[in-house]
């Protein structure tokens, strides 16, 4: 079983802590850093290799990076002086950070991170939520098992977090999201269905847990789950 205390995983946590230092989970005061920690632990528990666990820690680092966030860029350069040697243009920093991560963890890990990174803009314009999710689902349908395992762990923690919020504050918890509850249930259901098809052996437990969590979410929302 992968150790969560390896030097590579420790370094990944250090990077994720810098990336998410000023972020909180949507509509809450919970530090966002809790999410990659949980994703990594789910992957480790399911027996995934270290490079997949590292990708779990790092999976939102590039997706959540805001080019205009000078404070985060400066913090990265303070903690990792190697990043001070490149261009100081905001639009160049993502590529520099991606190259730095590849140097630290190798191409296998970065391919996983990029595979689950959800681009939010194209040509400087926001991509609609539904368009983004349909594109991600299309990629997931033909993705490697490690990608499916990473996505299953990511969505499993998200669904469980929503369930906790619904139990604590009721339907008002759904107002923090831009998508309607029915749209979120559709997306989570599709991820669960695809992961159930693509995961075998020990990692299949992630898909099974996700499927069960989505069923509980459908019940909590009073909605019917559509299976494909």
Whole-number radius of gyration?
A: 18 Å
Major β-sheet, in short? 2 strands, antiparallel
Q: What is the total domain count? A: 2
Which outline best applies? Answer: globular
How many DSSP helices? 10
Structure description:
The chain has 228 residues and is mostly helical. It folds into two domains: 1-117, no CATH class; 122-228, no CATH class. The protein has helices spanning 7-19, 34-45, 50-58, 70-79, 93-105, 107-116, 129-141, 145-169, 181-198, 204-221; strands at residues 121-122, 125-126. The chain has a two-stranded antiparallel ribbon with strand order 1-2. It is globular, with a radius of gyration of 18 Å.
Write a concise keyword list for the protein shown above:
single chain, globular
Summarize the structure.
The protein has ten helices and two strands, in the order ααααααββαααα.
Topology:
Elements: H1 7-19, H2 34-45, H3 50-58, H4 70-79, H5 93-105, H6 107-116, E1 121-122, E2 125-126, H7 129-141, H8 145-169, H9 181-198, H10 204-221
Helix pairs in contact: 1-3, 2-3, 2-8, 3-6, 3-8, 5-6, 7-9, 8-9, 8-10, 9-10
């Amino acid at each position: 079983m992968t150790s969560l205390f390896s030097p590579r995983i420790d370094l990944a946590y250090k990077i994720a802590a810098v990336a998410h230092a000023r972020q909180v989970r949507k509509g809450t005061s919970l530090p966002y850093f809790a999410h990659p920690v949980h994703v990594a632990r789910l992957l480790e528990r399911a027996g995934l290799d270290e490079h997949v666990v590292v990708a779990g820690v790092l999976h939102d680092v590039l997706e959540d990076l805001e080019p205009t966030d000078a404070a985060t860029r400066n913090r990265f350069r303070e903690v990792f002086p190697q990043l001070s040697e490149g261009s100081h243009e905001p639009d160049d920093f993502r590529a520099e950070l991606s190259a730095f991560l590849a140097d630290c963890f190798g191409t296998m890990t970065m391919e996983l991170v990029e595979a689950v990174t959800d681009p939010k803009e194209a040509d400087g314009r926001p991509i609609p939520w539904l368009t983004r999710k349909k594109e991600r689902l299309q990629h997931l349908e033909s993705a490697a098992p490690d990608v499916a395992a990473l996505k299953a762990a990511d969505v499993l923690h998200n669904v469980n977090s929503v369930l906790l919020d619904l139990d604590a504050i009721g339907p008002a918890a759904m107002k923090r999201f831009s998508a309607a509850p029915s749209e979120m249930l559709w997306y989570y259901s599709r991820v669960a269905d695809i992961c159930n098809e693509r995961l075998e052996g020990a990692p299949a437990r992630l898909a099974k847990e996700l499927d069960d969590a989505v069923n509980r979410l459908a019940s909590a929302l009073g909605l019917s789950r559509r299976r494909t």
